[in-house]
Amino acid sequence: MSKFRLVVILLFSLAACRSNSSKNGILVADSMKVVMWDMMRADEVYLRMTAKDSTAAKRKENIRLYEQVFAIHGITKKQFDSSYRYYASHPSDFKRLLDSLDTYATRERSRLFEKKYGEPK
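Now predict its structure.
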């Protein structure tokens, strides 16, 4: 399990760290997309780690993983929450963000699959 966790943390570390926010502190869509992708991966790590664990430490571990994602991207929880609320309150922007996230996730999964198993023949 620790190897899986290490791989995920290393993948997080490879994520691009650049100026993420617009003038009003809202994350630009491209940055928000990558942060949301990393948060979904953190959720997956959390679910795998805690699948057979029934301790109360579960919630703390989930929060710790989210904090790592925020640190990797150089943002705060407050920035993420504000950005998420902004996109959720602007349906057309939110739809574009989610469509972009879906495309990005598909591309990343394909890239990781090809890296692990090679090019499809």
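Residues 14-18 have pLDDT under 50 and may be disordered.
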